[in-house]
Design a protein that fits this description.
The protein is built from 13 helices and twelve strands. The model has no long low-confidence stretch (mean pLDDT 96). The longest helix has 18 residues, at 120-137. α9 crosses α10 (213-226). β10 (242-244) and β11 form a beta hairpin. The chain has one domain (4-290): Homocysteine-binding-like domain (TIM Barrel). With 293 residues, it is α/β, with parallel strands linked by helices. 53% of the residues are buried.
């Protein structure tokens, strides 16, 4: 089986894909609609998103399964279909990606462990169901992303490591504090993320969402100060979100994003892609710079 880490060990810089949520909404996903149900009811549109990123020069594409845990799907009465929807998500991206890597997207459950809303065992079982289905659908790696709570991230990593044979990526989301440090919503620093998740056997680590690419540079420096060798993935937003006329906009142009690629690669990133607001054109321009680095 092909491995992302083998490519990285050869010194390659790899490019990931961009936004999925904003792309789905642009294709007609309505507020309150389940994105993962589109894997069955609008499979052609989902395929088109994955294919557009592969065609733009991405070395890997994600799956439309970010909210594919049984807990998230329960909001739509679809929790019993978790395996079906995740396997379909993986199969669509697998078909679109061709010989490129497919990353099975796993997002937070929305449940807060410390509040006692749910048990660790229940969270683990939900992630287990999701990652097994993603592997069955054909993903090359599991990407656990947009995490803010270390306990939940740890359970997701364990579920993926213990129940699949795939490489495991984990990214957390950090915002800058008034004193200039980066912390997750639950108070976790990039250093704490490294100290807690590397012992769990995560293969690739990093950050996504929350920041434009310029803001990610400081986060990468902190990650690299903690560990100089583990592969690092960054999926940055297209700038900080701007709320205008009831709509969230991400103002950073592809040219602006590409202008920071060299700096973030010099900081120690191995895989660079996009998050909210980024488009195939952002990825195309990122790839132009990254593949020459």
């Amino acid at each position: 089986m092909k491995k992302i880490t083998d490519r990285l060990a050869q010194g390659e810089i790899l490019v990931s894909d961009g936004a999925w949520g904003t792309f789905l909404h642009a294709k007609g996903l309505k507020p309150g609609e389940c994105p993962e149900l589109w894997n069955i009811e609008h499979a052609e549109d989902v395929y088109d998103i994955a294919k557009s990123y592969a065609d733009a020069g991405a070395d890997m594409v994600e799956t439309n399964s970010f909210g594919g845990s049984s807990f998230k799907l329960a909001h739509y009465g679809l929790d019993a279909r978790a395996s079906e929807l995740n396997e379909a998500a993986a199969a669509i991206s697998r078909k679109a990606a061709g010989d490129k890597f497919v990353l099975g997207s796993v997002g937070p459950t929305g449940k807060i462990l410390m509040m006692g809303e749910v048990t660790p065992e229940e969270i683990y079982e939900s992630f287990k169901e999701q990652v097994i289905a993603l592997e069955k659908g054909g993903v090359d790696a599991i990407i656990i992303e947009t995490m803010t709570d270390l306990d939940e991230a740890r359970l997701a990593v364990r579920a993926a490591k213990e129940n699949t044979s795939r490489e495991v990526i984990c990214t957390m989301t950090f915002q800058i504090t008034p004193d200039g440090e980066y912390r997750s919503m639950m108070g976790v620093s990039p250093t704490e993320m490294m100290l807690e998740l590397i012992p769990e056997g995560v293969d690739i680590i990093g950050a996504n969402c929350g920041n434009g690419i310029e803001g990610m540079i400081q986060i990468v420096h902190e990650i690299r100060a903690c560990n100089g060798t583990i592969p690092v993935l960054i999926h940055a937003n297209a700038g900080a979100p701007v709320y205008k006329n009831g709509v969230t906009l991400f103002p950073e142009t592809p040219e602006q994003t590409a202008g920071f690629v060299r700096a973030i690669l010099d900081a120690g990133v191995n895989i660079i892609g996009g998050c909210c607001g980024t488009t195939p054109e952002h990825i195309r321009q990122i790839a132009e710079v990254a593949h020459k680095h």
